[in-house]
Amino acid sequence: TKRLKKNHACEMCGKAFRDVYHLNRHKLSHSDEKPYQCPVCQQRFKRKDRMSYHVRSHDGAVHKPYVCSHCGKSFSRKDMMSYHVRSHDGAVHKPYVCSHCGKSFSRKDRMSYHVRSHDGAVHKPYVCSHCGKSFS
Question: Who contacts 4 (Cβ-Cβ below 8 Å, separation ≥6)?
Answer without folding.
Answer: 18
